[in-house]
Amino acid sequence: MGFIRKRWEMKIGTFARKFDMNISAIRFYINNGLLSPRKDGGQYEFDAECVSDMEKIVKYKKYNFSLEEIQILFFMEKASRFKDEVVTEVCADILKNKRKQLIEEKENLTKSIDDIEREIANLPVAGNEVIPVTGVPFLMIPHLYCPTCQIPLTLDSAHLSGGSIQKGNLSCECGYSAVISDGVILCQEFAEETPFKAFENIESVMAMKEQFSPMYRKLIAKTYMWMYGQIANQMKGGKFIMAGPFTFNFLLEYIEKLGKENTYLIIDPSLKRISKIKQYLSSQNYNIVYIVGNAEDHPIKKGAIDLYVDDYSTVNCLFTYDTFATKHIAPLLKPSGEIIGIFTTYVQAPKSLYNFKRNHPNFLPEKMTLSGLKHHWSLEGIKIVEEKKIGATTPNEVHFPQNVLGEVIEVHGYHAHK
């Protein structure tokens, strides 16, 4: 009749898991004589005594005993079971010495903490004012990748100030390069003036809305509220949020609600517009990365962005380049990335839509459809999961310069997932 393993005996894997250790650690204690499991058929069997010994090992390690000290304590305990007065005294001395050692370490730690406190107190302080982060935040460095090779860019000749990078050169061995100047990343190809010419005051950030009727402004505001409501609970703490190109005012108006824990990327082909946005936000201490250049040249690691804010960006890209920017934006999103956006449709306003050709002759009005937007996002593996018609303009007034009296423009919000 074979040997029947008692219920309280365990294999080495089970024993290791019981004490949240790996098997090699258990073998180490066996080899050093601290554990003495029975061996059956080449496999260790751990009984209740092994459990008790392991509990003592854990306890002594918590007291900062060395392996040699634990071995001595184990040897004396097992040899005499503390029935020998001399052995008991030796064990007591070991414990007392360890207590004395820990007290000394505690005193030294307390002194070191006091010294550090004095060092902190003696550091020069430029008032209590928080210095705004106006350059490329340090935490963006791991996400600065060559857009072609998708490998980390080399940063050299960096000038640091206020917890961010103000100047520097970014380069890749493939020949790609970008420059950080005045805290802004400048790609190889960028424009001083914006190529989007549909509205006056486009460079003035907030003033552009002055060209819109009160009703159209109200529709935009309602859409912004809907957009924020879609992601308000998901975008707290350490997210990467991107807007642009040709972004309007959602981020400017909602950045405070989204919070300072996030990192914001604002992209645009125009240095002048980025400079205006940077100036507008300069008094607020947010981690913002400003990138100027064409969409295909942005030095951003693929899969880095949690949320893309399509604040008229797809609409304005259609006007300017006669194409959606979806193929450049989608790869930058994380697998769980989201998009919130605003989109205008001109089904009841064909003349108004055609008027945009005055500023952008290559624009094809027939592309400006919500179904077209859905199709282009779907080509990149992104699905619009919710779309809402926020409202429409009235036909009895002109709501922006291209709008023809009598025509109605619909404003929609949408929410998409990768």
Descriptive account of the structure:
With 418 residues, this protein is of the alpha/beta class. It folds into two domains: 12-104, Multidrug-efflux Transporter Regulator, Chain: A, Domain 2 (Orthogonal Bundle); 137-417, Vaccinia Virus protein VP39 (Rossmann fold), CATH 3.40.50.150. Helices cover 36% and strands 21% of the residues. The chain has twelve helices and 14 strands. The chain has helices at residues 12-18, 23-31, 48-62, 67-80, 85-122, 214-231, 250-258, 271-281, 313-321, 326-329, 350-354, 370-379, and strands at 38-40, 43-45, 136-137, 154-161, 164-171, 177-181, 184-186, 240-243, 263-268, 287-292, 305-311, 333-345, 383-392, 410-417. Strands 3, 4, 5, 6, 7, 8, 9, 10, 11, 12, 13 and 14 form a twelve-stranded mixed β-sheet that branches. A two-stranded antiparallel ribbon has the order 1-2. A hairpin with a 5-residue loop joins strand 5 and strand 6 (177-181). Helix 4 (67-80) runs antiparallel to helix 5. It is elongated and about 105 Å long. The model is unreliable at 1-5 (pLDDT under 50).
